[in-house]
Design brief:
Blueprint lengths: L3 E10 L9 E9 L2 E9 L4 H19 L4 H11 L11 E9 L3 E7 L5 E4 L2 E2 L5 E5 L2 E9 L5 E5 L18 H11 L6 H15 L8 E10 L2 E6 L8 H10 L3 E5 L1 H11 L25 E3 L2 H14 L6 H4 L5 H12 L2 E6 L16 H17 L3 E6 L1
Parallel strand pairs: 12-13, 12-15, 13-14, 15-16
Antiparallel strand pairs: 1-11, 2-3, 3-4, 4-5, 5-9, 6-7, 6-10, 8-9, 10-11
Helix pairs in contact: 1-2, 7-9, 7-10
């Protein structure tokens, strides 16, 4: 497996008064370490722009992921989308980021603001080759990627932010570059960086965007595995085997559930140190076992993590809640959303007697559903997720 991976995150805001965004981002997996990201910006705003950008991004990403040459893909879409007779511009512009084995990126840029490339926490002026494909002026770049590289693709709603209000001529690209450079050392995830950038655009628009604005961020980083143990196995005789496999995994280790943590403590021959200190009223306290990175309660804590995960892949409005709190759910979120690239779930299928009480609505099916839904959210974040049941 390639030691490098990419973290992809994006966010959009739509034109004031419109229900749909005229920008669209599509991500298509080509293989385990290769993917295609397309950011398309439909002309104008509203339903028409949304349809055009969605079609553009979906068609291009699908064709590139299928292995068709970039030139053929661009020529097809450029020929398909006519030029507006009034404005003299294409009905949809686009930026393509073709990540090959997470070692090389091929950039194809058509009428969108040029991708910002940060290397070593500073702007990198990468080479561009101008080509005419299907009568359209296309800029193409092929760049070897390094750990720590950061790419920011955006629609023209970002540099237009503040036009006539905060700035006379909008938020210039060089100002956006300086803004991103200042954020890079903080170590934010791609999703958080895109959220911060678009939120700043929204502020410059005074909360009333005069254009759709989208930012898509790609970070290159080394893989970081995290393993989660959730529930004891259905067969008690499998406890040692489950624990052996769990602790043999590289990276961070999280244990969720009281019974599960007791079994782990016994296996490690270390004391389980519990706590009654509630960092957050709706999340049970954490515990400690020497040799384990994080020990939490089970179902209630994971339910909270799932709530945060669903928000993270949408508006990311709850980031300020889990980004600094010390409760178990917040700590799991930071490990899974911000640190982990490869996540291994070890899920025990034993029935918990406490969940069979008629006064307690929780059930065995709830635990299985939590794992399934959380895994789905994590995959949408671009994580590699494996679930093993015992």
């Amino acid at each position: 497996m390639n030691d490098l991976c990419v973290d992809i995150g994006y966010k959009s805001i739509h034109h004031v008064g419109e229900q749909l965004c005229g920008d669209h981002v599509d991500v298509a997996e080509q293989d385990e370490n290769s993917s295609v990201i397309v950011l398309a910006d439909g002309l104008g705003s509203g339903v028409k722009a949304s349809i055009l950008s969605t079609l553009t991004s979906k068609i291009i990403s699908t064709m590139v992921a299928a292995g068709l040459p970039i030139e053929e893909c661009v020529e097809t879409i450029a020929a398909t989308l006519p030029v507006c007779s009034v404005r003299g511009v294409a009905y949809s512009t686009f930026t393509i980021l073709h990540l090959i084995h997470n070692e090389t990126v091929e950039l194809i840029q058509y009428d969108n603001p040029h991708v910002i490339f940060i290397r070593g926490e500073s702007n990198y002026d990468y080479p561009k080759t101008e080509q005419i494909i299907g009568g359209k002026k296309i800029y193409k770049s092929v760049i070897a990627l390094e750990e720590g590289d950061l790419l920011v693709a955006m629609s023209d709603g970002c540099p237009h932010a503040g036009n006539g209000t905060a700035y006379n001529f909008g938020w210039k690209r060089e100002d956006i570059v300086s803004f991103v450079e200042a954020l890079t050392p903080a170590g934010y995830t791609a999703k958080t960086l895109s959220t911060i950038l678009v939120d700043e655009c929204n502020k410059l628009y005074d909360g009333k965007p005069g254009d759709d604005a989208t930012a898509c961020v790609v970070q290159v980083r080394k893989r970081e595995p995290v393993s989660i143990l959730f529930g004891p196995p259905s067969n008690r005789d499998d406890c040692d085997r489950m624990m052996s496999l769990f602790f043999s995994k590289a990276g961070k280790h999280i244990i969720c559930g009281g019974t599960t943590s007791s079994i782990a403590a016994k296996y490690l021959r270390k004391p389980l140190i519990t706590s009654f200190d509630f960092e957050c009223a709706d999340v049970p306290p954490i515990a400690r076992i020497e040799g384990v990175d994080l020990v939490t309660e089970g179902v209630v804590t994971i339910s909270k993590v799932l709530e945060y995960a669903r928000d993270y892949i949408e508006e990311n409005a709850l980031y300020e809640e889990w980004s600094f709190r010390k409760d178990g759910a917040s700590q799991i979120c930071r490990l899974l959303f911000e640190k982990a690239t490869d996540i291994n779930f070890f899920v025990g299928k034993a029935m918990n007697p406490a969940h069979q009480n008629s006064d307690n609505p929780m059930s065995f099916n709830l635990k299985m559903n939590l794992v399934e839904e959380l895994s789905k959210c994590l995959r949408q974040m671009g994580k590699k997720v494996k679930v093993s049941y015992y």
